[in-house]
């Protein structure tokens, strides 16, 4: 049974009434920032597909509008929450918040969302100027996109922190629906994982799955977040849920976007297409995520370094065991369909490119090169897992 701390003015009878009362709905701004995170995720993948299928976009293209909706929703609802708490909040509400700039009160997650919204809105005219000056981007991490992505990640991280703060306070007095909190945390963490994959996707394509660099990048990035979520979640399968949401969102975008018409509006056009070209099919992160959750349950009493060694090495080796042969499958004839989306191809690339459905020799590591590369990837995985454990402990302590 969870302990309940009585406030000076709260009687035992009142506390029992609260603890046995029907859970109330979550604050509206929690749903708003999770929805904003979803809009950002969909808008970003849609924007990449737009560039691959149509080419040049405008400041108010549909994918941009989807991301702007996310930024504006996050900024408005989080800003309103801070202003209401500052000027009309009760003493108890302010005690459960943080004070910043010596005037305002708000949650840590709301602050992240506000800062992220400002960054995203600032990047919009910068990105439009960049396109007008230098033309179409040839990479995801251009200067304006970097500012935009930082804002997106900040909002999505803010959404997750907002939910985790409620989850951690929930252990004191059962005010909100535990199921609603779990779903919001599951969704917000999964949307963040989609964003992380997208940022690093230039090194994580199906053509890179036989390179040690693929596993170095994956091991250095994903365990940090999967381990942290597994540690912070009230569910025994937090990392698995996070990977499941990532898998579902990525797969749905592969299946849905090609249903809509799209034609290139920027030359030269070597690959004549009539529909949206999809983004990447999801990585098989669900399998190492299952291992992370299972190991976290079995190694609860072990030292962090022991847990980090087990988690990091397991992540790398399991990902290698499933993703290497899956890369062969994605390059084969049985994956050339709407389900896996491997027929999608940039309109400016030669459709008869010799390595369209194969691995280029310079993208295949073998022998000592592969072994050394995987060893380095394991080291990255251990370091990433160790940081993830520390971050997860911090997230479990966040209550404001």
Please characterize this protein's 3D structure.
The structure is a single chain. The protein is mostly helical. It folds into two domains: 25-199, no CATH class; 203-237 and 250-273 and 283-400, no CATH class. The chain is 64% helix and 2% strand. The protein contains twelve helices and two strands; from the N terminus they run ααααββαααααααα. Strands 1-2 form a two-stranded antiparallel sheet. α2 (28-53) runs antiparallel to α6 (143-170), α7 packs antiparallel against α8 and α10 (286-298) runs antiparallel to α11. It is globular. Residues 1-21 have low confidence and may be disordered.
Provide a quick synopsis of the model.
With 400 residues, the protein is mainly α.
Descriptive labels:
400 residues, mainly alpha, two-stranded antiparallel ribbon, 12 helices, 2 strands, globular, disordered N terminus
